Amino acid sequence: MIRYQEIAESLERGLAAGGGGARAVPSEHDLCERYGASRTTIRAALKQLQERGLIERRQGQGTFYRPRHIAKHLGSLVDFHTEARMAGRVPTTRVLSLRARPATADEAALFGPASAAGLVDLTRLRGLDDQPAVLQRSRLGLATLGETRAADLENASLYRYLAECRGVQVATVEETLEPWSVSAEEAGPLAIAPGPAVFRSQRVARDANGAVVEVSDNLIRGDIYRFTIHRDVTDAAPGATA
Predict the structure, then answer these.
(1) pLDDT at res. 239
(2) Is the pTM of this model over 0.85?
């Protein structure tokens, strides 16, 4: 293997081992010393990583690692846009549809008084670096969302909008994940082929009183996201084993 390729692979392993967040890559000078290589060789290694989309050069700031996957922490309420920027990505949110309709009997039982005036079906496409990443289909009470326009939710966090503009604060989220084989209709917005290429996330968000704020069904590209969970062993029962 050519020397610059060896260095590129070593750099990729080292950067990946540091976690899923975006972070600065050592300077060319530091890399020359670390690997005992010429600046030309180091630049060739960095160029290879850049061509593979693993690093990016930011004018006046330096070179930064861009992990292959977005590391999404289960249990975290960090919004999509903040999470993406932490990973060095450029997030977008596009509203595909926003439609009011009457609630079914089951939905009325689930949402309670918030559904008396009906429900709103909200479909959004979340992107990373202009690449479709998540198709989100949400249901909310019409009374909860009010006279919201599609433009109000473009490139915005739904929960932040609810808190700041509607006075509705999400307190808890229950979420389940399963592998999902997408249909041709579902695969289209995500720009992938139909098949088992996504995670399906079903989520119920509630306020501090336990009332349902949002129910969502989300399709998440498995080639972009990976899920992690953090456990504090100090909270484990005495004698507990892995």
Answers:
(1) 55
(2) no
